[in-house]
Structure formats: C-alpha cells, structure tokens
Specification:
The chain is an alpha+beta fold. The protein has a single domain, classed as Tetrahydropterin Synthase, Chain A. It is built from three helices and five strands, in the order βαβαβαββ. It has a five-stranded mixed sheet with strand order 3-1-2-4-5. Strand 4 and strand 5 form a beta hairpin. The radius of gyration is 17 Å and the shape is elongated. The two termini are 21 Å apart. The model has no long low-confidence stretch (mean pLDDT 96).
Length: 138
C-alpha cells in the first residue's frame, strides 16, 4: 500500500506577467494589472506531497525533516523575497503564472527527491487562486 505525506511551507515573492512578443496593450488586455512594469507580489503557500511505500524499519515514506530540508534548499532559499521574473534562475525564462511556477517547482523538486516519490505540488498564489502540478500516468 502506498501512503502520502505533505509538507506545507510559505514564502513571499514578486513577479510580472508579461510576454515580450506582445505589445504593451496586449499584455495589459491579457494580464491586466499583473503586467505592471514594476511587478507585484504574493504571499505564497506551497504544499509538497510525496507518495511511496512505508519503510518497515521506520514506518515512514521519508523523513519529513529531510523533505523540509530539500524544499528549503532548492525552493524557499531561492524564491523567498525574490522576483520570479528577474531573480530566480529556474523561472526567468517563463511567464511566471501560477501554473508555470507550479510546473517548474515540481520539476526542480522531482529532480532532488527519490525517483517517483513526488506526487503533487499545490501552489497557493492567493487564498482563492491555486495551481497544482502532479505526476501523470504517462
């Protein structure tokens, strides 16, 4: 039987939703005030869920302290009080929508966790706006 555990954390970051291939007018029409040249910020909540078989010796999928360390080292330390559009190496080449950020955070964490254990990340941009990236069947 597989079991899942979730680690919840938070960070503050800014970004600008802007596509350089669009005119300023198109950016405003599509992204609204989120295309402001000075950007804007959010207090993000990140939930990271790993799934796996229980280790009979420890009763754990993985130690939550280790999961916390990986999240802090590879996500929080690089994103907290930074601007996704200009400061974070793994997001500077994308339009930093919640969906794109969730996908990139999933990719970063998936490369740092034991193979196949990362099941899902939920990124709360606001209380009402949430993006989910999860392992598919294929």
């Amino acid at each position: 039987m597989k079991v899942s555990i979730t680690r919840k954390t938070h960070f503050t970051a800014g970004h600008r939703l802007y596509n350089p291939d669009f005119t300023d007018e198109e950016n405003v029409r599509i992204f609204g005030p989120c295309s402001n040249p000075n950007g804007h910020g959010h207090n993000y909540i990140l939930e990271v869920t790993v799934t796996g078989e229980l280790d009979p010796a420890t009763g754990m999928i993985m130690n939550l302290k280790e999961l916390k360390k990986i999240i802090n080292e590879h996500i929080i330390s690089k994103c907290d009080h930074r601007n996704f559009s200009v400061d974070v190496d793994f997001t500077m080449d994308i339009i930093p929508t919640a969906e794109n950020l969730a996908r990139r955070i999933f990719e970063v964490l998936d490369s740092k966790l034991p193979d196949g254990t990362l099941q899902r990340i939920k990124l709360f941009e606001t209380e009402n706006n949430i993006a989910i990236a999860e392992r598919g069947d294929g």
